[in-house]
Amino acid sequence: MIFAVDLLLRDSIGLVEVGIVLLKVGVAFVLLLLGVMLMIWFERKFISDMQNRIGPNLAGPFGIFQTLADGIKLFFKEDQVPAKADPLVFRLAPYLALVPAFLIFTVVPIGGDFSGGGDGTVTWWGRQTFLQVADPPIGFLIILAMSSMAVYGVLLAGWASGSKYPLFSAIRVSAQMVSYEVALGLSFASVLLMSKSFSTHDIVLSQGGYEWNLWMTGLVPFFIFLLAVTAEMNRPPFDLVEAEQELVGGFHTEYSSLRFALFYLAEFMNVITMSGVIVTLFLGGPEGPEPFPLPGWLWGIFWFCLKMVVFLAVFVWFRATLPRFRYDQLMNLGWKLLIPLSLVWFLALATLQVSDNRDWNDFIVLASIFGGFVLVGLLLKRALKTAAHNPDPDLSAPATAENNVEENAGRNTENNFDIENLKEKDLGGKN
Amino acid sequence: MGQYLPIILLAVLAVVFGAVSIFVSHLLAPKKSNPIKESPYECGVDPVVETPERFPVKFFLIAMIFIVFDVEIIFLYPWAVAHGSLGVVGLVAILIFSFAVFESFLYLVSKGVFNWNSVKIGLTSRLQKSQAEASSLKDSVLLGNTKFGMSSNGSNNDTESIRRVSSKDKGIVEVAK
Amino acid sequence: MSQTEQLSYIAGQAADARLNLELETDGMVINLGPQHPATHGTLRLVARLEGEEVVEAEPIMGYMHRGYEKLAEVRTYLQVTALINRIDWLGSFANEVPFILGAEQLMEIEVPDRARWIRTLLFELSRIANISLFLGEMGLQLGAVTPAFFAFRDREFVLNQIEQVTGGRFHPNFDRIGGLKDDLPAGWIAETKSVMKRMRTFCDEIEDLLVGNEVFETRMRGIGVIPAEVGLSYGLSGANIRASGVDWDLRRDEPVGLVYDQLDWKVWTHPDGDSFARYWVRVQEVREATKMVEQILDGLPSGPIMAKVPRIIKVPKGEAYIQTENPLGAMGYYIISKGDLTPFRLKIRSASFNNISITPWLLKGTLVPDIITILGSLYFILGDIDR
Lengths: 431, 177, 387
Fold this sequence. Notes:
The complex is a heterotrimer of chains A (431), B (177) and C (387).
Chain A: H1 2-5, H2 15-50, H3 66-75, H4 87-104, E1 122-124, E2 127-129, H5 139-160, H6 164-195, H7 200-206, H8 213-216, H9 220-232, H10 244-247, H11 257-282, H12 296-321, H13 327-358, H14 362-389, H15 399-407, H16 419-430
Antiparallel strand pairs in A: 1-2
Chain B: H1 5-28, H2 35-38, H3 57-111, H4 118-122, H5 124-142, H6 156-176
Chain C: H1 3-23, E1 28-32, E2 44-50, E3 53-60, H2 68-71, H3 77-84, H4 92-107, H5 113-141, H6 146-166, E4 175-176, E5 179-180, H7 188-211, H8 214-220, H9 228-233, H10 239-242, H11 250-253, H12 275-299, E6 318-326, E7 329-337, E8 345-349, H13 351-356, H14 359-363, H15 368-378, H16 382-386
C-alpha cells in the first residue's frame, strides 16, 4: 500500500514525479526557515506578554521581522575560532546540529485528505502523493535517530571549543540527552503498540476516527513523551545546557557570528519539528472536523498547524513559568521515575492488547497489571533504599573530593521530591 | 533507496544553506582577530588553569548504561509492531526479557549509579544524626525568641544561652567531621 | 619468596601505579566572575570542581573597590553622604542614616520628631525597594525569568514615591545632620498607601509564583544550610542570620534615633537556615515593612523637620559607632572626628562583606547549580562588598 503511493518507487519516474519531489523538498525547506523565524518572534512576543513587557515591536508590523533583522546582523559579525579550539570539529559542529533538525521534519505528515476515512493522499497533476517529504517504512526510526544525532552537535561543539564552560555544558547535556532518550524511546514504543507500523503516515492513519494515541495509550506515554522531548530539546525547565547563571552561554559560549546563528536556528527548528512529531504521534496528525467544504488537504494543514501552535505555546509557557531543574534532580526524574514508569506502562498496554485479542478475563488481567505496578514500585523503592544506605565506594566521588566534602555533611541534603513533609516546617516560622 | 532520496536531498540542502551563509558572513564580516579575542572565555580573567582533558568517569558510565537500555528499546520495537501475530508466547517472552533488563536496572539503582551526590549520601547516617540534634537544638534555644547578646538591653542570661549553644553546636560540627 | 616473585610483584605494583595515574580524572577550576551573568556585579568566585561537585570555592573581592573610607577623609560630612549613597545602591537612603545618626550623636543634636519619623519611613521604603528586587531576582537565578520582571515593575512604584520626596530615584542624598532636606510633598501620603497595598499584592504574587512552585522548592530546600552557630561566627546579619533561627534585629534591639520602638511590628525568623528560609524570611520582611510604612503614615507627627544646626558643620572631637538594620543586614559606621570639617577616619561595616565571607565554608561539597542558589539567597550587592 505504501509502496504504491511513494512517487519514487513507481515503475516509470517522469519529470512530474521529480518535479513534485523537488517541490516538496523546497517547500519543506522554506517552511522550516520561515517557521523558525516566526517561532522566535512568537516566543519573544508571547513571553513578553506574560512578563509585562512589550517585546520586539519595531522591525515590521508587531516586530515580526525582528528575527530577520537579528539574522542579518549576525552576518556582519566577526567569526571567531578560539586559539585553543579544535578547528575542524569546531566548524563541523553547527552542521551536526542543523541537519538533524531539518531531517526530522521530512517524515512528519503535515496535511492530507483524511476526510471520510480517506487515506491521506492528495492528487497533484494526476499523481497521488502524501503531504510529507518522504514516507519511508521506518520513518519512526528516523525521528529517533535524528534526535540522537543532535547530541553530537552539542557535545562536539562544547568539546572542541577548548574552554571550560562549553566543555562542562557539553558533558552535562550529553548525559542528559541520552538519559531522556531512553524515556523517549520507551514512550514511543507504546505508540508503536497501537499503530503496528513504523511509518509515520500509518501511525496517523491508525489514529483515524479520533482514536488518538493521546487517550488510546492512556495519557501517561504522552506526558512522558512531552517531558522527554522538552529535555531532549534543552528547553526550560530542562535547559541545563545553557543555564546562563552557571555556564554563561553553555556549549555555544565560544561561538559567534553565523555559526552561533546556526545553533540558534537548529534549536528553534527542533522545537517546531518536535511539536510536529508530538502531534503526529499522539494527536492524530492533520485529523480534525471540517465545518465547511474546502479541498480536504487544506483542512488537514489547518488542523495540523493549530495543534502544533498549541504545543509551541506550551513550550514557551514552560519557559515563562518554571525555574530550572538541578542536574541531579533532572537525572533522578529521568532514570528513577520516567524510565521505569514508561517501561511498565508499555508492558501493561501490551498485555491489554494481547488480552483483547484473546477474550481473557478482564478482571484477572487488570488485577495482574495492577500487581505488576505494585511489584515494580516496591522493588524500585527497595533499590533506592539500598542505594541510599550502601553506596558503592568506587562510584562515589574521587578521593580528593571526599575529604573536603565530608566536613560539610549535614548542610547539603539529598534532593527529594517529598515536599509535603517539608512544608510543615514553615509553620514553625509563622508562630 | 528511492524513498530516501528526498531526505538526502533536504540534508544536502541544509548543509549547503549552512555553508553558503557562513561563506557570505565570511565575506561580509570584519576580520580583526587578536590573541585576547582568541583566548577562551574565562569570565574576564586570564585563563590560568588549563581546561582538563579528562572528566569524571561517571558521565561516561551514564552513556554506557544508555547503550544497554537503547538496545533493549530496539528489541521492543519489532515486537510492538508484530505483537498481534506473536500472541501469548511473544507476550511472555517480552515480559521475561523486560524483567531481565529491569532487574539489571534495579541493580544499577541499588548500586547508587544514579546518585549524583553519592558522597553526601554515603554520609547519610552521620548526617541525619547531626541534623536531628541540630533541629532539637534550634527548637529549644534559638527559636525561643532569644535576643542576641549585642542588644543593649539584653540580659546576661541571653548571652550565656548563646554561649551554651556555641559549645553544643561545636560538638555537632565535630560529629559531622 | 624467590627473587623472580619479588620482581614480578614490583613490576605488578608499578603497572598498577601507572594505570592509576592514567585513569585519574582531572578536577576543573572555573572562575565565576568577575564577568559572569550570575554574580550580578564583579564578584569573582574561583571554584575547583570534581564533576558537578564543588571541592572548594573562594570569593575574590575588590574588583569594584572605590576606596570610600579613604575618600571620606577629605570630604565634608555633607559630601560624604553623596558617596555612601553608592554603597548599597538598591537601598541608598538606608546607607545615609547610620552615618548621619553617628555624626548627630557626636554633635549632640536633638532631631525633631517629624524628621525621625520620616527618616524611618524612607528607610523602610528603601528596604522594600531593595528586597522586592531580590524576591524577583532569586527566580532569575534559578532560571525563572518572569518574577524578575514583576519585581522590576512593582519596585518602580516604590522608587517613584522615593523620587517624589527626595528628587532622586536611586541616590536620594536626602538625609542631613539635624534632620532632612525637605518635607513630604502634598498628596504623597495617600499615594504611598496605595503603593503599599500594591507591594503586598506583589508579595502574594511572588508567593504564588515561586514559593509555591515545586521546582523552586526542590532547588531551595536544604541547600546552603547555615547553622546558627556558624552563621554567627562568620558575622552574618540581617535576613541571612534570621533565617537560621537567630532572633536578632537591630531595628528592635538597637533602635537608635529611629522610631521603630513606637511601631507595631514583628521580627520574622525561620528555623531551617537554608536558601528557602532566607527567601521566605525576606518575603515576610517586605510585608512587615509595608505595614510599618502605613503605621508611620498614619502616626506622622507635625512639626519642623530640621533642628538648629550651625551653617558650617564641624563635628566635635570624639568617636561614635552607630549601626542600623539595613536591607542587606547590619550596617555600621565608625566615625572618628578630630573636630575638623571632615571625619578623621571613617570605618564602614557593610553587611554584604560579612555575608559573603561564609561562602568558602558554605560552598564546599555543593553542586554547581547550588552555587548560584546559595549566592543568590545570600543576597549581596557588590557595592556593599567592595565599598
